[in-house]
Amino acid sequence: MRAIIPDALKLQLRYPARAVGILGALAMAAAVFMPWAYGPGALDNMTLWASPSPLQLFFGVLALLVLALLAIPLVGKPKLGRWAHILAWNTSAKTSAISALAMAGVAAIAIAIELGGVVNLDPGAWVALVGGVLAVTATLFLPDSPPPSLERVKSAKWLQITGIALGMAAVLFGAAYGLGLSDAGAFLTFAAFLVGLVLILRQFGVFDWLSIAAANNRQVLVLSAFTVAFAFPFTQDGSDATMSVAAQVLIFAATALGLNIVVGLVGLLDLGYIAFLGAGAFTAAVLSESAFATIDFHPPFVITVLISGAVASLLGLVIGAPTLRVSGDYLAIVTLAFGEIFRITMNNLDGNDGPNLTHGSNGIPGIPDLSLLGFDFGQPHVILGIDIGRFANYYWLMLLVMGLIIVVFTNLNHSRIGRGWVAIREDELAAEAMGVNTFALKLLAFSGGAFLAGVAGAVKAHYDVSVTPDQYVFLESAFLLAAVVLGGMGTVAGVLIGATILKLLPEKLRFFSDYRLLLFGLLMVVMMRFRPEGIVADERRQLEFHDDSEELADEVEEELIAHHAHLNPDREVFEL
Amino acid sequence: MSSNPDESGVGVNAGEVLLDAHNVTMQFGGLRAVNDVSLRVHTGEIVGLIGPNGAGKTTFFNCLTGLYKPTAGSVEFLGEPLPPKPRLVVRAGMARTFQNIRLFHNMTAIENVMVGMYSRTQTNAIDAIFRLPRHRREELASTKRAKELLDFVGLTGSGDSLSRNLPYGDQRRLEIARALATDPKLLLLDEPTAGMNPQETRQAEELIFKIRDLGLAILVIEHDMRFIFNLCDRVACLVRGEVLVEGTGKVVQNDPRVIEAYIGAPATEPDWQQPGDRPGEGVADA
Ligand SMILES: Nc1ncnc2c1ncn2[C@@H]1O[C@H](COP(=O)(O)OP(=O)(O)OP(=O)(O)O)[C@@H](O)[C@H]1O
Ligand SMILES: [Mg+2]
């Protein structure tokens, strides 16, 4: 857009543009109190005058943001003081307007589809759309603002901690609300709102600020993240549907995090990772108390988990030792083949073609629920007057496993081992010539990652009740890899987001399950073109993807130094 | 090589034999890049390796550091045969820099140096995951030592800079710091001043003397003759894979064969006096 509208014109039109934008924002705000749909069957019942539905209220938030961002600067620069520089007012207004329009658009399309035609759009939807178009057009004519500098604002510790807590609370609320939406259109509209909000906050510099706050208050961040995740079942009041999805997301995300060690930290392409999850699941299944278990040895689950991890990592060693010596492409091919060999082998260990270990394609059903320290995972419990069902129990267990994997991931990443991994990624030969045992480090990542997948698999076996070979197909490996790449290689937060998106969308949008491969493929292509480093970028990875961008290199260095700001007190900062 | 102690230039500083390369040959298909080269480096010595482009100097370095396995001949370090892998060579006490800088570009200066300490530290996965005392201890010690090394090579305050953001001369010095971090007894430098201006070259010279004064031996490849003859106790001239002359700077720089090797025919008075004309650079000054 910058190129299309000349700066001179922008300067000339800045007052009329602002006026039109405010008009558009007011229209959108008014639309909140009007009906959008003719019938109650679409979204969350947007048929009433002066009685907004939750989605309409969310839309109102975006409208108010546009209004505020356009109107407040009218008081003049002197009154804004430092805030004139801290927020990128005009650019943020543009982002907000685009987000609002996009949300209105998604809602309108969803209403039209769900009720069968555009005629079902009531005045509110049209007012919102027209207001959105006005606001977007107007903000395109506003001069660009310099980038925000919120992260330079020196903030007190309590402010940082409050910021983190508020962020976590927002995540909890968003997750609880989004998962509770059963209507696909409503879910998509809400997703559009969330994406828009994230983009706006990013424009504000909130995430830069938060990342510094997080770096300075690691314990607070970790503690609050786990508190929020732990509290999640209490927001669902015994709803099995949501909790079962949440538990599945966690299993998927934990596995993806294990893969992220291999792919994200070391840069090895593993296309058969699901086999390690399967190895863990089958091991736990044959050692379980199931009537179909084929091994007459049923250790307590704590032991089983370790055996499952060990079996998986042994497989990792067997696959890795010969292939990790050669270049990366071979590893991709070998792991791809290994995934298939694993599945076929599990199918054949049925007593006809080999020893009966897995009952072939029938797998091992009837795996009993876990019981740890007298806590029966199959039974619902009432805690604080709220029903905590079977799925919530497993959700908590997976949370524990996830915590374990995150600890392993981050502690390895920030250590001698992690530095060796980065060196391998950067220049394997130079690393070797500097004394780094590259082969051992790659093997460690490969079999260590397999161990974590094996552990996750052991829990999954009990959660799924039955384990069959066809749960562990290549497509699942591809999805795991997609979660890592989409979310952001080498990051924890990114992979959690990536895994959530990839697991949640098909669950929530049943109608699109026929097209999900097509859409994910498209999504990946778009990501690779526009943001290869993923949603949440690991700084180093980002640099690797943009090897020639000196701007980015300076930015990252600046950030690195900012993250060390508490060690470096004489750095220039804004005082509030 | 030479039996005459005066000409061999094995100087007063020199102690026991550190590196002993015997008749090393490296054959690439039909090309014999290094042909029957023997070279000794003693403790406390600075030895220069010169020769025109493509003479096989870098290839010889690669043979010494385990990157190539020589087709024939043997290399001994501290009386032991050279271990077969680069990282084992590093452990044994030999570290190198590269002709075209091979830093870890997206790591900070201090991280680059800390990678160099890999072979001298023991923290394993368990230590790191559970943050056991060894991890803490080594991490603290490594950070401290890395800072000292950065100070030593003159990169004070650049620790948090990405190595790719450093100026060219600083990158060369960082590579030396990274090599020093492996705690070597012998440091191999492949054209440490290539692309540097005269002032930076002088600083590099001082740095190399400083490293020698720490008790390390140094084997250095350079095209800058003034630099080499200032610095080295002993110089070997490699031409087409073979050692043409070896001895003190004086011996080598006055040898007509060396001049011939650099400028082609003897004394046709070409433009080899021009500074910046790489192959002949400095011969004129000498
Ligand atoms: N891996 C290889 N395979 C084939 N030929 C090689 C290989 N490495 C080097 N050579 C050849 O060996 C010869 C010596 O190369 P080398 O890089 O050792 O020269 P050098 O003395 O370091 O030259 P310069 O001063 O330009 O750095 C060259 O002809 C080169 O092409
Ligand atoms: Mg060379």
Give a structural overview.
The complex is a heterodimer of chains A (576) and B (286). Chain A is an all-alpha fold. Chain A has two domains: 7-229, no CATH class; 236-545, no CATH class. Helices cover 67% and strands 2% of the residues of chain A. Chain A contains 24 helices and four strands. Chain A has helices at 7-12, 14-31, 54-71, 77-80, 83-86, 89-115, 123-140, 157-180, 184-204, 206-216, 218-231, 240-266, 274-286, 301-323, 328-348, 390-413, 416-426, 428-433, 438-464, 474-487, 492-508, 516-530, 539-545, 550-563; strands at 371-372, 375-376, 381-383, 386-388. In chain A, strands 1-2 form a two-stranded antiparallel ribbon. In chain A, strands 3-4 form a two-stranded antiparallel sheet. In chain A, α6 (89-115) packs antiparallel against α7. The radius of gyration of chain A is 26 Å and the shape is globular. With 286 residues, chain B is of the alpha/beta class. Helices cover 36% and strands 22% of the residues of chain B. In chain B, a hairpin with a 2-residue loop joins β4 (72-77) and β5. In chain B, α4 crosses α6. Mean pLDDT of chain B is 86; it is low at 1-9 and 265-286. The chains are: A mainly alpha (576), B alpha/beta (286). Chain A binds chain B through residues 407-408, 411-412, 415-420, 422-423, 426-427, 429-438, 444, 448, 540, 543-544, 550, 553-554, 556-557, 560-561, 564, and chain B through 65, 67, 85-87, 90-91, 95-96, 98, 102-108, 111, 114-116, 118-121, 123-125, 127-131, 135, 138-139, 142, 160-162, 164-165, 178-179, 182. Magnesium ion binds at residues 57-58, 99 of chain B.
Q: How much helix is in the residues of chain A? A: 55-70%
Shape of chain A: globular
The quaternary structure here is heterodimer
Could you report the average pLDDT of chain B, rounded to the nearest whole number? Answer: 86
Low-confidence stretches of chain A: 565-576
The radius of gyration of chain A is 26 Å
Give a list of the ligands: adenosine-5'-triphosphate, magnesium ion
Quantity of strands of chain B, as a count: 10
Give the helix/strand class of chain B.
alpha/beta
Q: Helices and strands of chain A: which structural class?
A: mainly alpha
Tell me the distance between the termini of chain B: 24 Å
**How widely separated are the two ends of chain A?**
34 Å
